[in-house]
């Protein structure tokens, strides 16, 4: 029987009680010899910050030479409580805790490197706890240390990737291990041994890398919701669960705001043709959403809607663009130089509209672009993405989408369709977003 990967997110390991339910789920999958990937301890009570967020706050104080002891105490207390309630001993994490203290003392390095080492302890602590509970329940288990992980990344701290060709190193020495392996998610290392992290929410990516390296039969992502829905349930309460979606659809949805899966997860799974199953650790008996490598015929042409609010629109206009080669390259170089991702792009011969998600370097970008173009930046925009495999080669879909928006009185600002032809993406004002999504849902999906 093929093996599986089971990845548990922060809310699934947020309390002793939650960890015990997760252990039941792992034990029930016994024959499939699961490879377990865990996130850092997440939020269990309102108003409380996730351990990863707490580590970040502490790292910024420590690196700036400010007092951070209360932050460290709070992180310790949270783990102590869980360990005690599980009837375990602090010894199970004390070697890792000492390493965290040593990392905090090593401040003579760039903040991005310091932060990633501190960040890594969220998962390094939770994975030790999970392995100890499994052992206690009679299932031999072993936590994988960050040195044995074999997740070799580039140097893009806080958002590292495993370059092609290095994927096979993942857990390489551990293929024959009989015990259940518990893998800390989110963490990697540069070839010269500096710790990196894979982007917020990046434990999903770890799960996919482990799954691809072992050629598993399924990658299970256990979260706190039963799969993906065809629209944001905060806006459309009765939005249906998606039973199956294709990798291409999932990629579009994950990149445009569907929060249940980290977008990077899809690549390794897709390359090795491994289905990804999104399940709910709070209701393990319920079916989730299966993402797989085939274009599933579905009665509806439009399958789902995703959206991202608080997006910034940048308009760049220049008559010099007319017939000029290399102009677009020059323009995008400015965004790359300031490490700013561009999401949606629409162009005409003399103007380019694009969207970015963060305003960290926006002023510098605008200033530099103004050397060769007229530039304006508008905030408070929402990107809405309409997705469905059935849109390939079906006439009339965009007609229906935009006439629905017109009838609802929504002003559409920028339209783009990717080469996959399975999405139509456009922008509206934040204040019109909810109206637009509801109108589209009821006209095109429900
Ligand atoms: N702990 C990390 C985060 O909160 C990674 C993860 O949970 O996947 O972003």
Description:
35% of the residues lie in helices and 20% in strands. Strand 15 (414-416) and strand 16 form a beta hairpin. It folds into two domains: 4-224, Carbamate kinase, CATH 3.40.1160; 304-444, VC0802-like. The model has no long low-confidence stretch (mean pLDDT 92). The chain is globular and about 65 Å long. It contains twelve helices and 16 strands. By secondary structure, it is α/β, with parallel strands linked by helices. Bound molecules: aspartic acid. Aspartic acid is lined by residues 9-10, 39-40, 50, 52, 122, 185-186, 200-203. Residues 9-10, 39-40, 50, 52, 122, 185-186, 200-203 line the site of aspartic acid.
Defining key terms:
about 450 residues, alpha/beta, Carbamate kinase, VC0802-like, 2 domains, 8-stranded mixed sheet, 16 strands, about 20% strand, globular, binds aspartic acid
In short:
By secondary structure, this protein is an alpha/beta fold. The protein has twelve helices and 16 strands. The structure holds aspartic acid.
**Number of helices, counting only DSSP H or I runs of 4 residues or more:** 12
Structural class: alpha/beta
Q: How would you state the average pLDDT, rounded?
A: 92
Strand content: 15-25%
CATH homologous superfamily designation of the largest domain: Acetylglutamate kinase-like
Q: What's the gyration radius in Å? A: 23 Å
CATH architectural designation of the largest domain: 3-Layer(aba) Sandwich
Morphology: globular
């Amino acid at each position: 029987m093929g093996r599986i990967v089971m990845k548990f997110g922060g809310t699934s390991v947020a309390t002793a009680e939650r960890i015990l339910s997760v252990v039941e789920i792992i034990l029930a999958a016994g024959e499939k010899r699961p490879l377990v990937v865990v996130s850092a301890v997440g939020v269990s009570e309102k108003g409380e910050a996730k351990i990863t967020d707490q580590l970040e706050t502490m790292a910024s104080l420590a690196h700036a030479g400010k007092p951070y002891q209360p932050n460290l105490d709070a992180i310790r207390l949270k783990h102590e409580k869980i360990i005690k309630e599980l009837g375990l001993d602090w010894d199970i994490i004390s070697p890792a805790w000492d390493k965290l203290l040593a990392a905090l003392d090593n401040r003579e390095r760039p903040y991005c490197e310091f932060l990633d080492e501190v960040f890594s302890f969220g998962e390094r602590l939770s994975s030790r706890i999970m392995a100890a509970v499994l052992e206690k329940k009679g299932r031999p288990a072993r936590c994988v240390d960050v040195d044995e992980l074999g997740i070799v990344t580039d140097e893009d701290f806080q958002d590292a990737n495993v370059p092609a060709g290095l994927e096979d190193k993942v857990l390489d020495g551990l293929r024959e291990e009989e015990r259940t392996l518990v893998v800390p998610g989110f963490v990697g290392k540069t070839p010269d041994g500096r710790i990196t992290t894979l982007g917020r929410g990046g434990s999903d990516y770890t799960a996919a890398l482990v799954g691809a390296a072992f050629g598993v039969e399924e990658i299970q992502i256990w979260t706190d919701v039963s799969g993906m829905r065809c629209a944001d349930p905060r806006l459309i309460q009765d939005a249906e669960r998606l039973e199956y979606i294709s990798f291409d659809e999932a990629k579009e949805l994950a990149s445009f705001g569907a929060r249940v899966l980290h977008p990077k997860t899809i690549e390794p799974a897709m390359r090795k043709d491994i289905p990804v199953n999104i399940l709910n650790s709070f209701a393990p008996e319920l079916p989730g959403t299966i993402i797989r490598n085939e274009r599933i015929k579905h009665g509806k042409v439009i399958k789902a809607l995703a959206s991202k609010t608080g997006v910034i629109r940048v308009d760049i206009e220049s008559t010099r663009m007319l017939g000029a080669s290399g102009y677009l390259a020059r323009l995008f170089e400015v965004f790359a130089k300031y490490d700013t991702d561009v999401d949606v792009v629409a162009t005409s011969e003399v103007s380019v509209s694009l969207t970015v998600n963060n305003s960290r370097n926006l002023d510098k970008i605008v200033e530099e672009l103004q050397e060769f173009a007229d530039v304006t930046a508008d905030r408070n925009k929402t990107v809405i993405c309409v997705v469905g495999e059935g849109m390939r080669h079906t006439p009339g879909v965009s007609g229906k989408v935009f006439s629905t928006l017109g009838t609802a009185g929504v002003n559409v600002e920028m339209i783009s369709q990717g080469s996959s032809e399975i999405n139509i993406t456009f922008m509206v004002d934040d204040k019109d977003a909810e109206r637009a999504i509801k109108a589209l849902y009821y006209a095109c999906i429900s």
